[in-house]
């Protein structure tokens, strides 16, 4: 497995720390989209390369807000997406991690009802309670569209962009809705259940049509996560590792070693299927030593702990597999 971490913002200090922690590659995480100018994208690649971190993953890729809801300008946005895919492939990027939630906030449409829940030791973390969702949770001015029309928008998008992704050697890795509930805040969300991912992958067998396997989101669904790793083997391009405590309608995000998911079993299964893609720690609680400019879920100190834990899981489960041969 290739271990990665998100550095937000990607300052010199943070990127040096990622390299020191043993990160293999860079993830450029920008929910505001990507420039379509090749020189601007090359500058991003060169920025990470200065710290020994080849740029391999773009989250969340080019803007798709008009595409998701089928708004005016969707066709132009699709053509722009295809151009950027070509640039990214030429620069060595291998994965675009994207989602198909309505893009109505700075984090697409990831919905949380608190950022002051408490993990171990009182560490601030995010939480979600469906009972607390109200008009002020995620205000927007979008007109809802039916679920099936959103599927039509996704399939039209994939029909247009998958050939460009194949030509560029880039995988489009779909992330689940977070939380996987629909409708939410008045809008449909279509990547909210296992059947959605079955449908997505059945749409095209292209290796460019892939998954961002978010352990936390599948845990929120209450899914058999180990079984899904096996079910989707060969189609997983990228793994997000985080954990929760609770249920789909009432949960908090935890440190990776205090949640309810058997991460050992998941890593063991990833090794069993020969997964050699990218893995990163996902949202982590904020530690008391985190800097004040750290965004929710992406404080460096919490991620330093998480990446160390994931490295241990990776090494231990790889050795168990080797010992059983």
- Mean pLDDT over the residues: 94
What oligomeric state do the depicted chains represent? Answer: single chain
Helix and strand run? EHEHEHHEEEHEHEHHEEEHEH
Global geometry = globular
Can you tell me the number of structural domains? 1
Q: What is the CATH superfamily classification?
A: Divalent-metal-dependent TIM barrel enzymes
| Spatial strand sequence of the major β-sheet | 1-2-3-4-7-8-9-12
Measured on Cα atoms, how large is the radius of gyration? 19 Å
Number of strands: 12
Report the sheet-strand fraction.
15-25%
The level-1 CATH class = Alpha Beta
Number of helical runs? 10
Q: Give the fraction of residues assigned to helices.
A: 25-40%
Kindly report how far apart the N and C termini lie: 19 Å
Output the structural class. Answer: alpha/beta
CATH architectural category: Alpha-Beta Barrel
Enumerate the spans where pLDDT stays under 50 for 5 or more consecutive residues.
none
> Main beta sheet: strand number and arrangement?
8 strands, parallel, barrel
Region (Disordered): 126-145
Catalytic activity: D-mannonate = 2-dehydro-3-deoxy-D-gluconate + H2O
Cofactor: Mn(2+); Fe(2+)
Family: Belongs to the mannonate dehydratase family.
Structure description:
- This protein is an alpha/beta fold and about 325 residues long.
- It has a single domain, classed as TIM Barrel.
- The protein contains 10 helices and 12 strands.
- The strands form 2 sheets. It has an 8-stranded parallel β-barrel, surrounded by 5 helices. A 4-stranded antiparallel β-sheet has the order 5-6-11-10, with helices on one face.
- It is globular, with a radius of gyration of 19 Å.
- The mean pLDDT is about 95.
- Pathway: Carbohydrate metabolism; pentose and glucuronate interconversion.
